[in-house]
Each structure stands twice: as C-alpha cells, then as structure tokens.
C-alpha cells in the first residue's frame, strides 16, 4: 500500500493536474466532498437519490447545484463536466445499475475529463468491526467487478488503481456505534443488539495512531477516462 494521505487531498491534486473547473459529485450525500470542492474554487454539482441528502447538501453548500436522482440516469447533457467523482458511493448503487452509472459518468465528461472512483475495500479493521452490523462484502466486490468490466470492455481506460489506508479516529466503542448511526440511523439498533460482539472486535482491531485510537480502512482510487471510439 502507498503512504496514507487524505482522500480529499488526493482528489484535489488530480483535479488540479487535469485543469478541472466543473465537477460532478455523484452520490453527494450531505455535501461533505462538495463543500471541500467549492472551498477549493471548483464549480460543484451534486446528485443523490435521497431527498433528505440533497436538502442537507444545499444547506452545506448554498453556492452549489444539487439535484435528486440516480447515478444510472444522470439528468445532465453530454460533455457537461471536467470531472466526475464517486466517493464511497458506487457500492450504494444497485448492483444491476452499476455499469449504467459508470457509463453515464463517462458520458457527461468533457473530452480529456476524468472519472475518479474511491471505494472501500472489503477488508481492514474498520470493515471487520462493522461486519456484524452490515456486511458489505458482496456489494463492495460488485463495485470493483463493475469497474473491471468497464475496463475489460474498453469503454474506459486508466492506470492501475491506487490502494491506500484511511485511519479513522475512534475513541471507543460508543464513538464507533455513533459513527455507524450517522450514516444510517437504523444501524444503531443493530449495533446495540450486538454490543458484546462489537466490543470484542473493536478491542481486537483498534490501533493507536498519532491522534489516539483509530480504525484503519483500506480504500482504492481509480482514475478513468472515456476510451476513444
């Protein structure tokens, strides 16, 4: 694995390298990445299927443009953006629609634009502690297979992905359960029902980093361009 670096820093470096201006945040959630992009000077558009997420993103980045919709049918004209980003969101697209979502992202790219995909790998400390609450093994593998299929079909081209580690500060089990619930409130009841198991796993996998206890999650980053016809 490469040296651990902040995901936002990696994405901003790539955007600067390709001279991007207009960026599409696919699966924007509550707008965390969109806010980072806007603060760095980019024109930001976000899309998410959840209306509450879109509302939160609009509050977080009033200067951005946010729409509700699915990644498999982007409501944007061909060649609208310099870059498209899936940040931990491709594996949330229904498996049968992942290929369509990737092809749509390539469609809305301008010539020379890049599609960046960051996906969590189905391994690592954070993943192992989370598994009893929500085991994402299959959907994470499905997302990687969808990317591999796109490359095999020569619809997209790009270098080998980069795998790196994301340390997440996690003071204790309570903080871990709270982090799961922030993503999906329904996870709290599932976590509470398995508190003893989660406690054992947390103790077994937590490590101590520069800022204290942390859980490591490997991430993988792809940089793709549309293949020439």
From TrEMBL:
It comes from Roseovarius mucosus. It is an enzyme of class 2 (transferase). Pfam families: Methyltransf_11. One of its GO terms (biological process) is methylation. Residues 24-117 form the Methyltransferase type domain. Its EC number is 2.1.1.-. GO terms for molecular function: S-adenosylmethionine-dependent methyltransferase activity. Keywords: Methyltransferase, Transferase. This is Phthiotriol/phenolphthiotriol dimycocerosates methyltransferase.
